[in-house]
Structures are given as structure tokens and as C-alpha cells.
Amino acid sequence: MNRDSQSGSNLTELWSISLCAVLYKMNGLDPGDDDEWESAKNIEMHKQSFKRDWGIENADDLMRNLQWLAEEGHRESFNQIRSFLSALSEAEQTKYIDSIPKTTGGYRKHQIVKAYMNRLPAAGIAAWDLGRYAYLSRKGAVMGYISQEQSLELVKPIIAAAQQSYSGWREYGTAYLAGRQFWWAQPTAASAQKMAGYVRSLLLNADSLWNRLEWEMPLEETAGQPASPLA
After folding, report:
1. Could you tell me the CA-to-CA distances from 172 to 33, 111, 195 in Å, in that order?
2. Virtual torsion, Cα 213, 219, 225, 228, nearest 10 deg
3. CA–CA distance, 102 with 171 (Å, rounded to integer)
4. Which of 79, 140, 195, 214 has the most beta carbons within 10 angstroms of its beta carbon?
5. pTM: predicted TM-score of the whole model, two decimal places
């Protein structure tokens, strides 16, 4: 399929791949080439990771996870902490965070929220949830849990949510990185640099999907679709 033909289902697919392009790179896959997904070896590997990381073994499991990412995800707890810290002065924020045991994930999560709370738009780390939604829906189709057509239908409101929530790929990428740090809670400097490298390559490489797809490009495929899950 020529995914640079930016109309109809091709455009929806291009957006879907672009939203989860960081996860492609993390897993050693080329965002521009899905063929490597479809070998028997890779399909078995993905099935194992689905079961291990998500508890997904069938279509119902997949849909349950997709619903959670669309309606709640990790952004909910990020936003709860953000709302709480926003009511405090800078000094009060520091004092409160310092009162949390430093060996806990909660301490690190509050630090991450404080670092990003004024750098991200209202959607916060939704990019992390939306990117993983797109990735799971695509992998679910490869695994045979849902059809390719269903995968594209599912991701349309997710594309709309991303477009409405962020000003462009740079802001989306920043929110995605913040989301992954929040989820992991204890990232090392090396891992953070590696993740930033994936995003940087997508932003700076002229041939990357992010630079071949204009953020504000109208997506006719989303017309008449359900309201954005972040609305």
C-alpha cells in the first residue's frame, strides 16, 4: 500500500502509524514498513508481548484495553496530581513533594508532573495514551484479533483527539516523552536520553513520517465519528 497517498483510508493509516511511531522505533520496527510485522516469528513475539504486558489474548481483552486508554489511561492520574499541585505555591509544591518517601514511585511521579505541568497543554500526557492506543489497535489487526478495517475505524477519533489536543508533532512528542517517564516513574538518565533520541529523529529526519504528514491536515475520515475521547 502506498501510504504517502494522503487520502481516504491511506491517510488514516498514515496518521495511525505516525501516532505510534515512537513505539515502532522502541521495538526495533520501521514505521514506514509493516511487512516485518507479519512474519510468523514476529506475530508470535507480538502475541507473547500482548499477553505479558497487557493481558491480551483475544479480541475482548484488546477492546477492554483500548477502552481504558481512550477513556482514562495514565493521563487521569497525571491530571489529578497536576490539579493538586496547581493549587499550591512553588514553595508548597516543593515542600509537599519532599515529604513523599523518595524511594517510592509516587515521589518521582510528582517530580515529573511538576517539571511538565506548565510545559504541556491541558491534555497533559494524553499523547502517551493515544500513541499506545494506535499501536495496540494496529498490532491487534496483525494478530487477527480485529480486522484492518476495524482498526482504522477505531483509531479515527483518536487521531481527532491528538489533533485537537496538541499544536503539532513537537508538542505531541514532548507530551509522549513526559507520559512515558510518568508511567515508568523511575527512568534512568540513559533510558530518558534513548527515548528522547527516538523523538528527536522523528522531528529532525526530513524523511520521517512526522515530517511527511502535516499536523493540521484535515482528516476527512474523522467526519461523523464519535466525539473525541478527550473532549
Report:
1. 22, 20, 14
2. 50
3. 29
4. 140
5. 0.89
DSSP letter string, 190-203: HHHHHHHHHHHHHH
Residue keyed to cell 513520517? 209
Question: In the chain, what are the domain boundaries?
Answer: 8-73+128-222
Q: How far apart are CA 152 and CA 155, in angstroms?
A: 5
pLDDT tens for the 231 residues of the chain, in order: 344 444 457 899 999 999 999 998 887 777 766 666 667 777 888 899 899 999 999 999 999 999 999 999 999 999 999 999 999 999 999 999 999 999 999 999 999 999 999 999 999 999 999 999 999 999 999 899 999 999 999 999 999 999 999 999 999 999 999 999 999 987 678 888 899 999 999 999 999 999 999 998 766 644 444 445 564
DSSP assignment string, the chain: --TTS-SHHHHHHHHHHHHTHHHHHHTT--TT--GGGGSHHHHHHHHHHIIIII---SHHHHHHHHHHHHHTTTHHHHHHHHHHHHTS-HHHHHHHHHTS-TTSHHHHHHHHHHHHTTTS-TTTTHHHHHHHHHHHHHHHHHHTSS-HHHHHHHHHHHHHHHHHH-SSHHHHHHHHHHHHHHHHSS--HHHHHHHHHHHHHHHH-TTSHHHHS-TT---GGGTTPPPPTT-
Query: Could you tell me which of 158, 168, 156 has the C-alpha nearest to residue 133?
Result: 158
